Structure formats: C-alpha cells, structure tokens
Amino acid sequence: MAIPDWFDLMAGGASIVGLGYAWWASRQATGAKAAAEAARRAVYHRNAADEVARLTRIAEGILTAIESEQYSLASYHSRDFIALAPRIRQDHDSWLGANGVKLEVAIGLAREIAQHLLTGVGQSDLEGARRVVVEMSSLEGVLRRNVREGR
C-alpha cells in the first residue's frame, strides 16, 4: 500500500471514532435534558405544595381568630386567603387536578366566612373555618405525598 492508502484508512478510522463520540455525546445530552426536566417538575411540585401549606396556615389563622373572638383578625386572614387562593389554583391547576376541588370548596367557604364577618359571626362561621382547615390540610397532605413519591 502506498502512503495515500494509509492516509485514507486513518482518516476513515478517525471519522468512525468521531461518529461514535458524537453518538455518545448525544446520548449524554439527552440524559442530562431528561434529568433537568425532572428537576424542574420537582421544583414546580414542591413550590405548589409550599404555597398550599401557606394557605393552610392562613386558614388556621382564620379558625384561631374566630375561636378567640378576634373578628377583625379573622377578617384580615380571610381577605388574604381569598386573594391568594385563586392565584394558586390557576398557577397549579394542571398538577392539582381533581384535588383542586378541595381548594375550590375552601375558597367558597372562606368567602362565606368573610361575608359573615362583616355582619356578625355565628356558629356556622366557626364550622366553616374548621372545614376550610380540614380541606386545606387534606390538600396539603395529598400534595406532600405526591412530592415524596415523585408524581
């Protein structure tokens, strides 16, 4: 074989090695992309669970304020809940899925409580506040479990 034949064989071999390296790098990049997407979803789910936990704390504040007959504080917490909950519902609607109904129920109850606080508190407001806490705690538990299980 002449020198040009060796050169052609070496160039062909280098091309095959380069093609193999490109294939390997492509596989690595695809895996990295999938891992980044999974991490992004996990952060999104964790943020949703944290925001629902914040709503749960506000709902507990409403209940505590009504139980201790601090109605202006209960009204304040109700307004916070009513302002924050619909945004959270919209931001995380796809992940909440069917569990979003619990949030809708809690929003409705909080609106009723806020309306009653303007006219005078009754036993139904205390029961409504308890239901809001139960619904929010339940939703928070479902979301926290989903985060732990990676759903």
What key phrases describe this protein's structure?
mainly alpha
Structure description:
The protein has 151 residues and is an all-alpha fold. Helices cover 91% and strands 0% of the residues. It is built from five helices and no strands. The chain is rod-shaped. The termini are far apart. The mean pLDDT is 80.
Secondary-structure element order, N to C:
HHHHH
The overall pLDDT, averaged over residues, is 80
The termini sit apart by 63 Å
Low-confidence stretches: none
Structural class: mainly alpha
Please give the share of residues in helix.
over 70%
Q: How many separate helices?
A: 5
Beta content comes to under 5%
CA gyration radius, whole angstroms? 28 Å
Strand count, sense and barrel status of the largest sheet are:
none
* Tertiary shape: rod-shaped
Number of strands: 0
Short description:
With 151 residues, the chain is mostly helical. 91% of the residues lie in helices and 0% in strands. It has helices spanning 3-67, 71-91, 93-96, 100-119, 123-149.
Q: How are the secondary structure elements laid out?
A:
Elements: H1 3-67, H2 71-91, H3 93-96, H4 100-119, H5 123-149
Helix pairs in contact: 1-2, 1-5, 2-4, 4-5
